[in-house]
Write a structure and sequence with these properties.
The protein is α+β, with helices and mostly antiparallel strands.
């Protein structure tokens, strides 16, 4: 069969239509067999002549011949239709499989491009005290810092760079960018005095590269 719609992909609806047609043909075949059964049960192969070679008078020969002819034609149609159903299902499954593989490939490509585009981190948060400015800003343990105000991987030398930025930004929000779970996350951190020690309430360590 030509693919439904002149080359468009097979849909579930196409398969359902083919199955409905198959059911119709099966019903027609059944009706023809019932007709033969009603004609003294002649079936498909019983002779239509009597012992002396004359056409049988006890049955409607025209009806029997027509029913037999229809059964042969319908069975051929049924066989061809079953092949179409099988091919359509195969195409449908193949397309689903292809779509699944494509979705997986796209997700993998996106993950890889994200990893490639992530900036280099220079320090890591290893403790955050609850209730501290760092905690309130949403900073978390294991966040890898890529930008801390004006400090980044290119100009970072030691933790004093961060300490200087913190001291000069007391009471003012600092833009901090971290890598968390393979994604870039922006945090607004305002260094300020609180119940604990320092202006942040977190501990930052340099990353060994």
């Amino acid at each position: 069969m030509a693919e439904p719609g002149g080359g468009r992909p097979v849909t579930v609806s196409d398969v359902q239509q083919l199955v409905r047609r198959k059911d119709e043909i099966e019903a027609q075949i059944k009706a023809c067999y019932e007709l033969l059964e009603g004609q003294k049960g002649v079936g498909m192969h019983e002779p239509l002549v009597d012992a002396e070679g004359f056409p049988r008078a006890d049955i409607d020969l025209y009806q029997v011949r027509t029913a037999r002819h229809n059964i042969i034609c319908l069975q051929n149609d049924h066989k061809a239709l079953m092949k179409q159903v099988e091919e359509a299902l195969h195409k449908l499954h193949a397309r689903e499989k292809e779509k699944h593989a494509k979705d997986e490939a796209e997700a993998l490509a996106e993950a890889m491009s994200q990893n490639q585009s992530l900036p280099q981190a220079f320090a890591k948060v290893n403790t955050v005290t609850p209730g501290s400015p760092a905690s309130i800003s949403g900073l978390q343990v294991d966040d890898e810092i890529v930008e801390f105000g004006s400090v980044n991987a290119n100009n970072f030398q030691n933790l004093q760079n961060i300490a200087t930025v913190v001291q000069h930004s007391e009471g003012r929000p600092l833009s901090v960018t971290v890598i968390r779970g393979g994604r870039r996350v922006h945090v607004g951190l305002t260094p300020k005095r609180w119940a604990g020690k320092g202006l942040l309430g977190c501990n930052i360590i340099p990353l060994q590269r």
